[in-house]
Amino acid sequence: MDSSQNVDVNQALLQPQADHGTVPSHGELERVLSDVETPLFLRLRKATMIESKLLFKLAAPAVIVYMINYLMSMSTQIFSGHLGNLELAAASLGNTGIQIFAFGLLIGMGSAVETLCGQAFGGKKYEMLGVYLQRSTVLLTLTGVLLTVIYVFSKPILIFLGQSPEIASAASLFVYGLIPQIFAYAVNFPIQKFLQSQSIVAPSAYIAAATLFIHLLLSWLAVYKLGMGLLGASLALSFSWWIIVVAQFVYIVKSERCRETWRGFSVQAFSGLPSFFKLSAASAVMLCLEFWYYQVVVLLAGLLENPELALDSLSICMTIVGWVFMISVGFNAAISVRVSNELGAGNPKSAAFSVIIVNIYSFTATVIVAIVLLACRDVLSYAFTDGEKVAAAVSDLCPLMALTLVLNGIQPVFSGVAVGCGWQTFVAKVNVGCYYIIGIPLGAIFGFYFKFGAKGIWTGMLCGTLIQTVILAWVTFRTDWVKEVEEASKRLDIWSDKKREVVSE
Q1: CA separation (Å) from 470 to 123, 293, 441?
Q2: Mean pLDDT confidence for 305-323
């Protein structure tokens, strides 16, 4: 977040507002917040109404997109679970132990597009958005080739990590069918960030909703009618993701709303890749460490006594947490766009105000959901499996699940702020310390040394999340937003030079 370069902040502050597409005038919010002649209460009330309108045009469709995308994976796990407890454990391990590895890495690398596209859009440098999209897709596809090796050797990897050979064998079969999904991720995440940075989110929501119905039909046919079992379930999921990718790309090419930001394929996509990789790698490390963190819970659970019951109960809880987490991920996407757009447009007060409003909305939503889930704790697991022992274990873990949901109401928002500002390297360091130096060791101590089992593992890791959230909250609310405008202006100057290869920040 520190800078060694000088910039004229006045130029950044006076930069014209983005009015492309259907984005409301962000400059109105800055004018309201800067109007010292209006009483504070009236100022805040009007600013809240403006911000809420801007926010929910982004957040509501984004929440729908992420929840439906996650629901596709969740439904695949449900189809697998009704084949038997072994199949549920295998699908859970494949989804949470292997697939989330690729998901975290690729969505993390894709968040570099979120930073650059959001700030370029706010600064009216529309032609660069398509270039950033293509550069990111090239990098993510190359990364996908490397990830394929992990998928192919998933069985020995899982056995090496201590999983039982029977579960590892079944999980590897499930994972083989997810290989095409890797490359769907590689294309989808840059497209998703490209559209979100322009506040174009509703089309993705419509596409995701339509694909969900197709996916459920395909899964039913593959698992029950064609008898393809675990492999059929995962292949159906991969195919469904490619439907989303193709539909979104067709929208970009055909839509008038993307006319200025998508100008066709360009050789610039292959220029400056090493420098672009550095920013993508920092983004990947930041988000991967978050996605992989709870993956470790499931992997550690496989080392406990009666690993099948521990895996089943924890994976059900983590699946529910992950689904509800998509609410916060939607707000994460919204705040990232809001902050990056406002910084790119030179509106520091608007960026700061948006952070506060988004936190309030996200926290309130997750608290409500946590209360509902606690009320339904005894019946939650029956959506996944008919086992009574699993139901009792899930009910026992529900209080920890509720605490996790409440904490997740604000933590992803601060991560979104980090992406919007380009703080990925700093947050990656915080994540390493809180998650992997504090959280995981505490979880292992509570789970194995003190013999608290799955509850102990989860409790220790929840401590790491709490510390990380407090640190990010402290940093965010002490941020000099005028200085962040300067940083955004410099970043745009560096990354929008189209006549020569991009240089490193």
Answers
A1: 32, 17, 19
A2: 77
Region 234-260 average pLDDT: 93
pLDDT digits (tens, 9 = 90+) for 157-198: 888 877 788 888 888 888 999 999 999 999 998 998 889 888
Question: Looking at 54-63, 136-145, 230-239, 358-367, which range is the least confident one?
Answer: 54-63
Whether 242 and 184 have beta carbons less than 8 Å apart is answered as yes
CA 218/CA 212 separation, integer angstroms? 10
Q: List pLDDT tens digits, range 465-476.
A: 899 999 999 998
Q: Which residues of 129-148 are buried (b: 16+ CB within 10 A; e: fewer)?
A: bbbbbbbbbbbbbebbeebe
Residues 6+ apart with CB under 8 A from 101: 147, 150, 292, 295
Residue 133 CB-half CA count within 13 A: 28
Q: Residue 93 corresponds to which tokens in the numbers above?
A: 């391990």
Phi, psi of 215 (to 5 degrees): -65, -45
Residue type present at position 60:
A
- How many other C-beta atoms can be found within 10 angstroms of the C-beta atom of residue 293? 21
Nearest in space to 313 (alpha carbons), one of 85, 133, 141, 123 = 85
Dihedrals φ, ψ of 111, to 5°?
Answer: -70, -15
User: Is a pLDDT exceeding 80 seen at residue 6?
Assistant: no
Angle formed at CA 504 by CA 193 and CA 345, multiple of 5 degrees: 50
Distance, CA of 365 to CA of 26 (rounded, Å) = 25
Tell me which residue of 500, 501, 497 sits closest to 116, measured CA to CA.
497
Q: How far apart, in Å, are the Cα atoms of 453 and each of 292, 294, 392, 449, 461?
A: 20, 15, 15, 9, 13
The tokens for 48 are: 């809240």
CA angle in degrees (0–180, nearest 5) for 327-135-137: 55
Share the mean pLDDT of the chain.
81
Question: Is the alpha carbon torsion for 345, 348, 351, 357 positive or negative?
Answer: negative
The tokens describing 189, both together, are 């995440």
Query: Helix 481-495 vs helix 411-421: angle between axes, to the nearest 10 degrees?
Result: 50
Hey, is 385 helix, strand or coil? coil
Please tell me the predicted confidence (pLDDT) of residue 504.
36
| One-letter amino acid for residue 343 of the chain | L
Q: Domain coordinates of the chain in residue numbers?
A: 31-495
Give the tokens for residue 198: 């322009």
Contacts for 94 with CB less than 8 Å, ≥ 6 apart? 154, 171, 172, 174, 175, 178, 230, 234
Note the pLDDT of residue 10: 35
Highest mean pLDDT among 15-19, 52-56, 127-131, 181-185: 181-185
In the block, residue with structure tokens 């704790």: 377
Q: Which two tokens stand for residue 142?
A: 């190359």
DSSP SS3 for 16: coil
